[in-house]
Design a protein that fits this description.
Elements: H1 5-8, H2 12-36, H3 45-87, H4 89-97, H5 102-106, H6 114-138, H7 153-178, H8 183-187, H9 208-219, H10 221-247, H11 250-278, H12 280-288, H13 293-301, H14 304-330, H15 344-368, H16 374-379
Helix pairs in contact: 2-3, 2-6, 2-11, 3-7, 6-7, 9-13, 10-11, 10-14, 10-15, 11-15, 13-15
Length: 380
């Protein structure tokens, strides 16, 4: 077997994202299916308006949150597969030299879907643990008749079984595509084919440290996405938690806050860890030539700081637009729903908290540079 369960166990990021996505979608979709059963029991106009608002909210939350997390999971899956192939290209090249086809080798990559299965299963089970309190909070004013919690097997299939099967198929197809390389190129240190090696354009001659920072960003576009996504999650969820706490319930606010912090920390950890490990040889050589730890850290990690600010801005705009749509369109006819305005104090508080967390994480990883052994790197 090319890929083992131990390799798939490293896909903690996909498991966490899958867990969060399925948790949110299960809560709202199960509530949506149960609410549909009481439509004929509605007697007042206010109850009908509130009913349609709840149905619309479930659709918006599942489509927006679920869709965003789905795209991120796919990107993370592709990243893990590409990273695995890049770090095991010699072993894969030997298998191809022995006569194994691309599809035969790629068929082992189905195990990468186990991370999706574990995360989805935990999220699905966790949703049912939270469901009694969630139903109570959703109908806190008792505008609607009592809503009984029902188990819908279709949700188990759609949110756990189908995503697992889809990600398994996607992993095999993507791995097969990435393995379409000549055997000699797999056995050599250079993984890219000569036709895809980009020529370095003649341009401004930047200083070494600045050029290294630019090169790191250009060659690690997926990691740039993860950095932006991490700050996006932190910004949107922390600010949205305060807004939802006033508009809906304290439970929803706490849940959004925890999901945002967990997603942000997970993706940030993945991105920065990969940057440090992928540039271990570069860091070792820089230390040999006398560059300080601060200079190494600034060259490799400093370029991601503007990306994190961009993600924070995008998250702020996203949460404001989503809450305004919810209040002004979905709940426009429901009485007692307060108007929503942009909360600058919450934004500045979230920004301050984000800066502290981000800089502490970067400082911790900068300290990891000290632990890189020059001797071990040179002996590889």
């Amino acid at each position: 077997m090319v890929v083992g369960i131990k390799d798939a166990a490293r896909l903690v990021g996909i498991s966490i994202i899958s867990c969060c996505a399925v948790l949110v979608c299960t809560l709202f979709l199960n509530y949506y299916l149960d609410v549909l059963q009481i439509e004929d029991l509605l007697s007042s106009e206010q109850a009908v308006i509130f009913y349609h608002a709840q149905v619309s909210t479930a659709k918006v939350v599942c489509s927006v949150s679920g869709g965003c997390l789905l795209v991120t999971s796919v990107v993370m899956l592709f990243f893990y597969i590409k990273h695995y192939i890049d770090t095991h290209k010699k072993e894969l090249g030997i298998l191809k030299a022995l006569g194994y086809s691309n599809l035969k080798i790629a068929s082992n990559f189905w195990v990468f879907s186990t991370g999706v299965f574990l995360g989805a299963a935990v999220g699905f089970a966790g949703a049912f643990l939270l469901m009694p309190e969630f139903y109570k909070r959703q109908n806190e004013g008792e505008i609607l008749p009592e809503i009984a919690i029902s188990f819908h097997p279709s949700l188990l299939v759609c949110l756990v079984a189908l995503p697992t099967a889809a990600f398994a198929l996607l992993a095999v197809l993507y791995a097969s595509l990435k393995l379409k390389r000549p055997v000699l190129l797999l056995l050599k240190n250079d993984f890219q084919s000569s036709s895809k090696i980009k020529r370095v354009r003649a341009g401004k001659d930047y200083p070494f440290l600045k050029d290294l920072r630019r090169h790191t960003l250009r060659t690690k576009k997926t990691l740039v996405f993860f950095i932006i996504f991490a700050s996006f999650c932190f910004s949107s969820m922390t600010q949205m938690a305060a807004g939802v706490n006033e508009l809906a319930s304290e439970m929803m606010g706490i849940m959004m806050l925890l999901i945002g912090v967990i997603l942000a920390c997970t993706t940030l950890f993945l991105a920065i860890t990969t940057v440090i490990k992928g540039n271990a040889k570069t860091i070792a050589m820089m230390r040999v030539f006398g560059y300080s730890q601060k200079e190494c850290s600034h060259a490799l990690l400093g370029g991601y700081r503007p990306m994190s600010y961009i993600g924070f801005v995008l998250g702020t705009v996203y949460q404001y637009a989503l809450l305004r749509i919810t209040v002004d369109i979905v709940f426009k006819d429901v009485e007692g729903v307060p108007a929503y305005e942009f909360d600058f104090p919450v934004m500045f508080l979230s920004l301050a908290f984000f800066l502290v967390v981000y800089e502490v994480v970067m400082h911790c990883y900068a300290e990891q540079i000290k632990k890189i052994s020059v001797k071990e790197i040179m002996l590889e």
